[in-house]
Amino acid sequence: MLNRYSSLLILLLSAVFLIGFLTFTKPAGTNPEYNNPDTFIEAFRSGYNIFALQHPEQLHFAGERVPMEQFDVRERFDRELLVNTYWQSSTMLFFKRANRWFPVIEPILAEHGVPEDFKYLALIESGLMNVVSPAGATGFWQILRGTARDLGLEVNDHVDERYHVEKSTVAACKYLLDARERFGSWTMAAAAYNIGNSRLGRIIENQRVDDYYDLFLNEETARYMFRILAVKTIFSDPMASGFHFREEDLYPPITYYNVAVDTTISDLVEFAFSHNTTYKALRELNPWLRSYELPNASGRLYQVKIPVPEEDSTNPPSM
To answer: CB pairs under 8 A, 24+ apart, for 172-180?
Structure first.
């Protein structure tokens, strides 16, 4: 009896395997007409197209003219425009995240007198994600630990304000304003943000020119401004670059209210529960919190964001 059932089981498994093999090895969308190589090639040529991209007649960054009449400037811009247009998934995510975070970043830039175009610098630095580079640069604005402290951000085992979007944006403004004062243009300030003030200063001294477009730079910094310009160009007219989306496709702003804290929180999990949320939600909204506690012997004032449940988002608690 066991051998009989074993034989039936083997036959059944073999049948399932054969059906699965035929199903998964059959090309999706098989069309008998494509058995003709000429028909297949014609269908491919008519249905799949990649176009060269039209450049804007004039290009500016932060009100400063880009010398598009220079062949190397045109070609560097063309490279970044192609890369960011045809890396569609990445750029679509840029649009989605920017809808949430640009409204946070833009007023801070305006308040500090930094041109709005610098929001694209944050976008190309991090994709508006709290990433950490191999060198340790962190957050939306990719700030190094030492630089963060120089700019007034708190960085320790419990708090890292490089992850605080508003505070790190203020810190980036301080850096950019100082770099513009030192190098004389917003374009050079952007380059200094990538390569560092000291290193850019040495390059200018060695090459005896102070215009970004005239400097011989390392690969990353040489591409830096053109990546910003390419993303700005795509954002200025998404459909012209083939990007189509509805308002509901974009990530909405997060609804929250602030809780002022000027004492130690010994247990952030319990703190979250006491405000009808979870530690996970608390950390996602306050990524600058880096542990399970918030020591505060000095009485420093922190604003902790508490998420509003979606069903209550039309009537959040008073801030």
So the answer is: 172/118, 172/121, 172/122, 172/141, 172/143, 173/108, 173/109, 173/112, 173/114, 174/112, 175/147, 175/151, 176/114, 176/118, 177/112, 177/113, 177/114
Structure tokens at 99: 């809808």
Tokens found for residue 69: 């009449």
For 151-187, letters b (16+ CB in 10 Å) and e give: bebbbeebbbbbbbbebbbbbbbebbeebbeebebbb
User: 74 forms bridges with which residues in the sheet?
Assistant: none
Residues 29, 31, 34, 36, Cα dihedral to 10°: 160
pLDDT tens sequence across 109-118: 999 999 999 9
- Tokens of residue 218, six digits: 């390392």
**Structure tokens, 28:** 């999706």
Tens digit of pLDDT for each residue in 126-162? 999 999 999 999 999 999 999 999 999 999 999 999 9
Q: How far apart are the C-alpha atoms of 280 and 113, rounded to whole Å?
A: 36
Q: Which of 199, 187, 207, 209 is nearest to 67 (CA)?
A: 187
Which amino acid is located at 109 in the chain?
L
Q: Output the pLDDT for position 49.
A: 79
